[in-house]
Amino acid sequence: MSGKVCVFGSFNFDMVARVERFPVPGESLVACGSMTSAGGKGANQATAALKAGANVHYIGKIGNDTFGHFARRHLKGVGFNAVTLLVAEEVPTGNALIYVAGNDAENMIAVDPGANMTVTDDEIAGCIPAIGCADVVLVQLENNLSAIEQVVDAAKAAGAFVVLNPAPWQPVEHAFLSKVDLLTPNATEAGLMTGRRVDSLAAAAEAADALHAQGARNVIITLGAKGALLSEQGVK
Description:
The protein is of the alpha/beta class. The chain has a single domain (4-11, 40-92, 115-232), classed as Ribokinase (UDP-N-acetylmuramoyl-L-alanine:D-glutamate ligase, 3-Layer(aba) Sandwich), CATH 3.40.1190.20. The chain is built from 7 helices and 12 strands. The protein has helices at residues 41-51, 66-78, 121-132, 145-157, 174-177, 187-194, 201-213; strands at 4-8, 12-19, 33-39, 55-63, 82-88, 94-101, 106-112, 136-139, 161-164, 182-183, 218-222, 228-232. An 8-stranded mixed sheet has the order 5-4-1-8-9-10-11-12, sandwiched between helices. β8, α4 (145-157) and β9 form a beta-alpha-beta unit. It is globular, with a radius of gyration of 18 Å. One of its GO terms (molecular function) is ribokinase activity.
């Protein structure tokens, strides 16, 4: 993989506590350990694309705060080919509080999206040159939908291949899905989008048909250990 990939998506500062069990309401629980790390679906997927060999331009928005300074240092160290960081002066950098419990690593997560949800039309307009020179543009749903739609419109106008990872799921118009070249929900997201249980390849095939009916051209539904289903305009 050596094409140009532009990723517009979230950056979050993750604070993780390892606990033997989850606390109950009102309880203070001593953790077994803790760590901090960079997160956010956008930054994570941009990193994955870079490791796969792509030329990656990451676009995200942070706050002018301690977590934002961490984001700058981290993203510089990742080695992206280019980074565009928009800055919110009065809104914090997105952050997540995560409990990881027990040997099975079950988790509970509370996310404050912060600056991720405040991207303006003018800010996206300033990013159009970067979007326009990409072969592939990847977006998620962890930013405000108005900005995501503007990025997708700019990508389509430039002839780029648009990939949407619909997480975390929020309702979108079918007209928006019709602009996406590849939709990549997991089983849970596919279920939320179609109103059905997706727990097998056969169920995923039915969900893919429903997603095509909503406007999606090509669909990959991931099923964890059960694999994944690819449906190219209905051909599976």
